[in-house]
Amino acid sequence: MAYFCHSCGNEQIFEVKVGVKVGRRDTCPHCGADLHCCKNCSLHDPSIHNQCREPEAAFIRDRAESNFCHHFTFKESDAWKQDKSAEDAKKKLAALFKNLK
After folding, report:
1. Quick one: which of 12, 16, 18, 82 is 20 to 30 A from 97 by CA?
2. How high is the pLDDT of residue 79?
3. Quick one: how far is CA 58 from the chain centroid?
4. Alpha-carbon distance 28 to 9, whole Å?
5. In angstroms, rounded to a whole number, what is the distance separating the alpha carbons of residues 81 and 71?
6. Nearest by Cα to 77 from 20, 23, 27, 26
7. What is the C-alpha to C-alpha distance for residues 78 and 18, in angstroms, rounded to an integer?
8. What is the distance between the alpha carbons of residues 64 and 7, in angstroms, rounded to a whole number?
9. Buried b vs exposed e over 41-60: b needs ≥16 C-beta within 10 Å?
10. Is residue 3 within a helix (H) or strand (E), and if so which, with residue range?
11. What's the rounded Cα separation, in Å, for the pair 6 and 81?
């Protein structure tokens, strides 16, 4: 399994390969972002009310900050995808208006 930082997208290397445990104070060695946060959790879903698929999870205001959630499980590699929709939209817009100059 490969695990990636929500902030920079770099792969995280863990010494324990079975049952990856991320401590509350663990940070990404590449960018310094907190690893034990909602945005790195497999239960994080921005499209639902509490942004968490666990109904008993407490509300957490800042999803990128370290927290004490007991439901945390690190996202696996296929769950992490970098959002490039804004870049794609800018390219399409530039191509649409390139002849107007």
Report:
1. 82
2. 45
3. 18
4. 10
5. 22
6. 20
7. 18
8. 8
9. beebeeeeeebbebeebeeb
10. strand 3-4
11. 9
pLDDT at res. 81:
55
Q: Can you give the pLDDT at residue 15? A: 59
The full 3-state SS of 19-40, as one line of letters, equals: CCCCCCCCECCCCCCECCCHHH
pLDDT in tens, 2-49: 788 888 888 887 754 556 678 889 999 999 999 999 999 999 999 998
- What gap in Å lies between CA 60 and CA 65, rounded to an integer? 9
Report how far apart, in Å, the C-alpha atoms of 57 and of each of 18, 60, 68, 72 are.
24, 9, 11, 10
Question: What is the number of other CB atoms lying within 10 angstroms of the CB of residue 74?
Answer: 19
Nearest residue to 11 via CA among 88, 82, 98: 82
Q: How far apart are CA 8 and CA 53, in angstroms?
A: 24
